[in-house]
Amino acid sequence: MKRPGYAVAAGVMLILAIATATLPGCAVKKIGDFDSTFDNNVSDLEQKTELHFAQLKSNPSKPFDQDFYDDADARIAVLKTRAAALPKYDILSQQLNNLQSQFDDFEKLDKASPRPISGAAVGDGQSLIAVSFESILRLELALQRTGTTSAAAQAPSKTK
Amino acid sequence: MSLNVAHLAEQMVAAALPILVQHSSDVQSFAKTEFAKIAQTLAGIEEQTADGQINQAQAAILLDMQKGASRNVLLALKGLDMLTVEEAINAALGVVKTVVDTALGFALL
Question: Within an 8 Å CB–CB cutoff, is residue A112 touching chain B?
Fold first, then answer.
């Protein structure tokens, strides 16, 4: 009955192989570090977005506000640039692309909707964008809990 | 000094397993919460279209937004899985670091 022993040995060898594939003495790192500037900028955008939805709900006759969408586009572009510069931020970059598409979609809906705008449409859009923000922030929170802080976050920020 | 493979494996599993179990529960809870919100919104879109609160063009846009939301939840789950694996591997290596490095005579782990 040597097979279980071989299986265990194979498992240990696999883990050691993964470990030795990285630099000796270093922890295994599969995803990027927590970045406080990225995190704060996402939270700022979420706050502005929630305010926009709250205003549309409380005043459905509020005219289409192109400035809000232009500002959101610019903020997401800055976030995408930062994510692209941070090591192993591919997942967060993809999440930002999806968030951008959602903003583009809601901009179309908002622009095409006669006033007063449907409260149901606003509420649905708000919920769906909120899910994306929560997904991004949930991952950032996990990075903060498990990892180190990125070197970029420790340097003075120019993107905020 | 030769390494006892079975003992090393036991230690590594003991270090990694609680992390995998704990995170599995956290991730499940996150997925349930977020997909419940998406399902609620989908049901809302269907009802609101039926009773005329939103038109078909708005419904189509909202459905497209729903795809983005679902993709972002799945991406978060992928990232959380990667973090869990990373944490489990590091915990497993951490508990055997001293004994392995001592046996080898240099700092491998």
Answer: yes
